[in-house]
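Customer ticket, subject: "Can you confirm the structure for Malate dehydrogenase?"

Message body: Hello, I'm evaluating your service for our small team and ran a test protein. I'd like someone to confirm that this is what the system normally returns, since I don't have a reference to compare against.
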Amino acid sequence: MAEPLRVVVTGAAGQIAYSLLYIVAKGDVFGPNQPIILHLLDIPPMMGVLEGVVMELADCALPLLHGVVPTDDPAVAFKDVTAAFLVGAMPRKQGMERKDLLSANVKIFKVQGEALDKYAKKDVKVLVVGNPANTNALICSRYAPSIPKENFTAMTRLDQNRAQAQIAAKLGVPVRQVSNLIIWGNHSSTQFPDASHALVNINGANTAVVEAIKDAAWLNSVFVETVQKRGAAVINARKMSSAMSAAKAASDHMRDWFLGTEDGRFVSMGVISDGSYCAPKDVIFSFPVTIKCGKWKIVQELGITDFARKLLDATGKELEEERQEAIQIIEA
Ligand SMILES: NC(=O)c1ccc[n+]([C@@H]2O[C@H](COP(=O)([O-])OP(=O)(O)OC[C@H]3O[C@@H](n4cnc5c(N)ncnc54)[C@H](O)[C@@H]3O)[C@@H](O)[C@H]2O)c1
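Agent reply: Thanks for trying us out. I re-ran your input and got the following:
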């Protein structure tokens, strides 16, 4: 059997982690033959709760789980890790301005970037889930200069999965038959869920989703808004934010990054922008990517309509503003 991989999950006592740890520990992310050691980071007041999570992981009796390291010390949490799920973040509280949220979180991600730089493996793959995910990932990368920028990503897979589910429901087909939905830009309400390159497999043949749905107005309005506002709809109904679906998306993202995307399919990930599709450079922008041998590549030369261009520009502008605010906060 392979040597165990060390995998850190931050915010390990929180609600997303509660679903994510089980998915990771049972082998859905790194494969059924890959043992893992889970490093669980949370803040000191949560150590009691974390102890309960550790007990439950033991009680799951999972054959691939070769060890669990609960801690409130980033130096211990990030030591020798090959994969990092950065879920822990300061949640938005009532009356909190967006700037206050950004301020609290960029400081957390600066500390975690420094710890990754110092203690993690140099090829560590980092997925930021905690919001604002794109800008947190950018700050984290800035403070981990010895790790390639390509190794810092932000999660837009939940938005992609939501988009895929909406299209499948509209067409009345299983989700598996729908592919190549794109989420462009920021994981925020300015994100652009784009179905114009999506495919649906009907009776073994691929058809463009646009052709199958034949309702451009629905695709440009109801579909886009439903995906953009899905997080808020879940909070309204559940009184808590998406957790099971966020955990599933985080595991999808990391699995594809480690094990590769299927031929003919692409997925969306927030990655360091090289200016593809005229997106601003050096922000973490969600693009369609394919992955081989642990390396992602932005899918090129997809057509961009005038409608799409406007939305791509708006989400890019928001990311530039967030970057500027974050840098001001951190350098103050
Ligand atoms: N990118 C996405 O698609 C997506 C989707 C859903 C949620 N989120 C975000 O994920 C984050 C976590 O959500 P949740 O529902 O699990 O929240 P939660 O409040 O249940 O859990 C967060 C945990 O993080 C911990 N934490 C806070 N600061 C920390 C630090 N410095 N180091 C380590 N741990 C720390 C908290 O103590 C808590 O246990 C939130 O920021 C949420 O907005 C992102």
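A couple of notes from the result: The first strand starts at residue 5 and ends at 10. The pocket of nicotinamide-adenine-dinucleotide is lined by residues 10-11, 13-17, 41-43, 46, 87-91, 108, 129-131, 133, 155, 158, 187, 241-243, 246 (CB under 6 Å). Feel free to reply with more questions.
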